[in-house]
Specification:
Length: 484
């Protein structure tokens, strides 16, 4: 049984409690008697807990009224440490015990916001695969960047880009040739790069390429690849002869090396393929105000006269059908051909890389040149500063020698970056040299009227018109179209 006073356990025959000395009545055994109310030793604990809770509530109420400071527990101090300007992308660090005595704000680490870069391009097959691989690798190394690649057919590229730009939905980066848009259009569609372009990267690029993407003193793109026309030759058909250094030597050599039932020279007469000789004979296209000046001086007349001479030369096939001309060279039926840099891998595959030589276009009265088209990466004018910075970071990565070399190996493109290792394909060295003295296709709006007028002039001369008359007609037509 229990002691009625303290609750201590007692034997049934025990008369007094050994704990507190309380006596029990022998006449009323504890087992049959109702027990006295027990006093619990938990009561003081409950009272203390209630007091503590009330005290905490009082402290919090006073703190809310500004009468006392928040208590110094570290996890409660974060109420003061977290700044009210904190945004979702920030990570807040709790103060340590050593910092509790200081009334300073907890340090904040800012996480870079995610940027989406959309890229429009026309590349196909090998180049497209390289771009996709590089974009995937870049995103792995830069998890805050998302790259969206959009391949557009070249025949639709310009029109579709103008439509989305007008609608305010232009892509972040545009891969395009420098002459696709004239200077006035570039100024409204694309962002001048200014200090965005890394100085060390620009220093590696062919100066002619930089000049091509620059207008009114502003660089609008980072050049990636160059396109020009050069002289290809079949090493087996030339034998121990060297490629010609002058146009006179070229005509003589064409007669000597013409294969049976073939030609020593297949000359593409389209203006882009032959235009370098307008300057090679001392001609000029525009003056400083973009007025056509073909009729000033004898250069344009000499150029067309020379073209007529090629038509009549023995061992030369002059034609504006570039497909049939290329077929002659592929089949070993032409020892030399003037053709675009984009044909290098094609010819090497057809004839064997060891049989295809690349030489500078032979000189006329002046060193010969070629028109130069430069494909570069442009940043849309509508981009924010943060988008532009993210876009330039990817462009700089893409234009670096290591990445450009992947495109060169895959598609035989001529790199604008002179630091790219081209030793794996000797044919590229000749193309690189040709681009160094090439003339960028003018990007003045007046250039649009030139192509058709010059094609007409060439065909008129080949059809029997006097070169001087053809030049007069072309000059008139170009200036009339441009209201000059």
């Amino acid at each position: 049984m229990e002691c009625p006073n303290c609750g201590h356990e007692m034997a049934l025959d025990q008369e007094s409690c050994q704990n507190c000395g309380t006596r029990t009545s022998p006449a009323e055994p504890a087992a049959s008697s109702p027990a006295a109310p027990a006093k619990s030793n938990r009561t003081p604990v409950v009272i203390i807990a209630v007091v503590v809770v009330l005290a905490l509530i009082a402290c919090l109420c006073l703190a809310a009224c500004g009468l006392i400071g928040i208590c110094t527990l570290p996890y409660l101090q974060t109420a003061q440490a977290v700044p009210t300007r904190a945004v979702v992308r920030q990570t807040v660090m709790l103060p340590t015990r050593s910092s509790q005595a200081k009334a300073t704000q907890a340090p904040v680490r800012t996480v870079a916001p995610r940027e989406t870069i959309s890229i429009w391009y026309t590349w196909t097959t090998g180049e497209d695969a390289v771009l996709n691989d590089l974009a995937s690798k870049y995103m792995q190394e830069h998890p805050n960047v998302r790259i969206e690649l959009v391949q557009i057919p070249s025949t639709e590229f310009k029109e579709r880009l103008q439509v989305v730009t007008a609608a305010g939905q232009s892509p972040t980066i545009v891969m395009a040739y420098h002459d696709l848009f004239d200077n006035s259009m570039k100024a409204t569609m694309f962002r001048p790069l200014g200090d965005l372009a890394p100085v060390e990267l620009v220093a590696q690029i062919n100066p002619q390429s930089v000049d091509a993407v620059t207008s009114d003193g502003q660089m609008y793109a980072v050049p990636l690849f160059n396109t020009c026309v050069t002289l290809y030759y079949n090493k087996e058909l030339l034998g121990d002869r060297e490629p010609p250094q002058t146009v006179q030597e070229m005509v003589v050599l064409a007669k000597e090396v013409a294969p049976q039932k073939g030609y020593g020279l297949a000359w593409n007469s389209l203006f882009f393929w032959s235009a370098g000789y307008l300057w090679g004979f001392g001609g000029q296209l525009f003056d400083a105000d973009a007025k056509c000046v073909l009729d000033q001086g004898s250069g344009a007349v000499d150029f067309l006269t020379w073209m007529k001479g090629l038509q009549d030369a023995e061992g030369v096939k002059l034609d504006n059908n570039i497909s049939s001309q290329s077929d002659l060279f592929r089949a070993g039926k032409a020892a030399m051909i003037n053709d675009g840099s984009w044909m290098l891998l094609d010819y090497q595959k057809s004839l064997g890389a060891d049989k295809v030589g690349v030489a500078l276009l032979p000189a006329a009265s002046q060193p010969a040149t070629s028109l130069l088209a430069v494909e570069g990466a442009y940043i849309s004018a509508s981009t924010s500063d943060s988008q532009a910075a993210a876009a330039m970071s990817f462009i700089a990565y893409l234009a670096a020698p290591e990445q450009i070399q992947l495109f060169v190996e895959k598609s035989g493109r001529v790199p604008a970056n002179l630091a790219v290792d081209i030793s794996a394909n000797p044919g590229l060295s000749g193309l690189m040299e040709q681009t160094k003295n090439a003339i960028p296709v003018p990007t003045v709006p007046e250039m649009a009227a030139v192509w058709g007028a010059m094609e007409n002039a060439i065909q008129q001369v080949l059809g029997g018109t006097q070169p001087s008359t053809a030049v007069t007609n072309a000059t008139r037509d170009i200036n009339r179209a441009n209201n000059k």
